[in-house]
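> forwarded from #structure-qc
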């Protein structure tokens, strides 16, 4: 995602307020191979990235002061009341060097075990990965359709792109189908009650 910025020479609260009043925000970029530089930019493109599925995992092609850098959002400041973006810290990254990120975990399909009355248990909402900035996945999507009661999907089962790895142990469970103990107990209680009622009916005869 392309991002244009201007080098900022003024600092302090006054200039920052004037910037925001004009529809722009202050920012800073730093990291390997880049001298820390104060910037001014329109927040629209940054927000577009932050509101996408990748969120803070978006890599931006930043142009500023005649320079270019691949960057990611390292930190940001948001107004607690209006929720407007106030300031962004960008960290320079290398396209071929993996970075640590957390990617949302989602499931698709209706599990075989759930159809039988089992419970779908998702143990994590995000998965920690090491991935080059340009191929960070939007999400980890697990198809649970064939998962039966007692079955599970672990880190070892993940199908990740070349160069992307999960930092969790291979045997870490991500999704499982558990027995619905309440449903089983209720069914057993109902069966026992029916048997007792049938036995009572026979005695009366």
């Amino acid at each position: 995602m392309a991002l244009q910025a201007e080098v900022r020479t003024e600092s302090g609260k006054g200039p920052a307020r004037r910037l925001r009043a004009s529809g722009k925000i202050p920012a800073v970029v730093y990291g390997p191979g880049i001298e820390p530089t104060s910037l001014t930019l329109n927040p629209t493109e940054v927000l577009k990235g932050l509101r996408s599925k990748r969120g803070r995992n978006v890599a931006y092609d930043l142009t500023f002061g005649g320079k270019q850098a691949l960057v990611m959002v390292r930190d940001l400041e948001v107004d607690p009341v209006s929720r407007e973006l106030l300031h962004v810290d960008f960290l320079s990254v290398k396209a071929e060097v993996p970075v640590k990120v957390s990617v949302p975990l989602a499931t698709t399909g209706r599990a075989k075990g759930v159809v039988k009355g089992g419970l779908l248990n998702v143990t994590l909402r995000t998965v920690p990965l090491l991935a080059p900035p340009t191929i960070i996945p939007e999400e980890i999507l697990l198809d649970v359709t064939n998962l039966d009661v007692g079955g599970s999907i672990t880190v070892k089962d993940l199908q990740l792109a070349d160069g992307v790895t999960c930092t969790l142990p291979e045997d870490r469970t991500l999704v499982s189908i558990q027995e619905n103990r309440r449903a089983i107990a209720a069914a057993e209680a109902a069966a026992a009650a029916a048997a007792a009622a049938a036995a009572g009916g026979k005695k009366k005869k």
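QC bot note: The chain has a mean pLDDT of 88. Residues 181-204 form the longest helix (24 residues).
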